[in-house]
C-alpha cells in the first residue's frame, strides 16, 4: 500500500467494501469506516498550513471544533460520516 495516494486508498477500500457487502456485511461496513477516516485525514491535511497535522483521526474528530473540519465539510459529508460512525460503534 505504500506509495498510493489517499484518493487511491479510498477508492480501493470502497471497491473492497462493495465486493464484501453480501458475503461479509460487517467487514464491508468496517471498510467503509476506514474510507471515511481516510477522507477526513485528506481534508485535515488540506487544511493544515502551519503547525503539525494529526497522525490519527477518527470519525469523531469531524466534530472537533479545534480541528475545524465541520466548517469545511458539506452537510451530506457530515451526515454520511455520522451514519457510518453510528453503524460501526
From the alpha-carbon coordinates, what is the Rg to the nearest angstrom? 13 Å
User: Helical content, roughly?
Assistant: 55-70%
Strand content: under 5%
Biggest beta sheet attributes: none
What structural class do the secondary elements suggest? mainly alpha
Shape: globular
β-strand number: 0
| Termini separation | 26 Å
Model regions low in confidence, pLDDT < 50 over at least 5 residues: none
Put simply, the count of helices is 4
Order of helices and strands: HHHH
Kindly state the mean pLDDT as a whole number? 90
Oligomer designation: single chain
Structure description:
With 89 residues, the chain is mainly alpha-helical. The model has no long low-confidence stretch (mean pLDDT 90). Helix content is 63%, strand content 0%. It is built from four helices and no strands. It has helices spanning 6-20, 25-47, 69-72, 75-88. The two termini are 26 Å apart. Helix 1 runs antiparallel to helix 2 (25-47) and helix 2 (25-47) crosses helix 4 (75-88).
List keywords for this structure.
89 residues; mainly alpha; 4 helices; 63% helix; 0% strand
Could you write a compact summary of the structure shown?
The protein is mainly α and 89 residues long. The protein is 63% helix and 0% strand. It has four helices and no strands.
Amino acid at each position: 500500500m505504500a506509495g498510493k495516494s489517499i484518493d487511491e486508498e479510498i477508492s480501493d477500500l470502497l471497491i473492497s467494501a462493495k465486493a464484501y457487502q453480501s458475503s461479509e456485511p460487517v467487514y464491508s461496513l468496517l471498510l467503509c469506516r476506514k474510507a471515511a477516516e481516510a477522507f477526513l485525514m485528506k481534508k485535515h491535511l488540506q487544511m493544515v498550513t502551519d503547525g503539525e497535522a494529526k497522525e490519527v483521526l477518527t470519525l469523531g474528530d469531524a466534530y472537533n471544533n479545534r480541528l475545524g473540519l465541520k466548517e469545511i465539510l458539506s452537510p451530506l459529508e457530515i451526515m454520511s460520516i455520522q451514519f457510518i460512525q453510528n453503524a460501526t460503534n
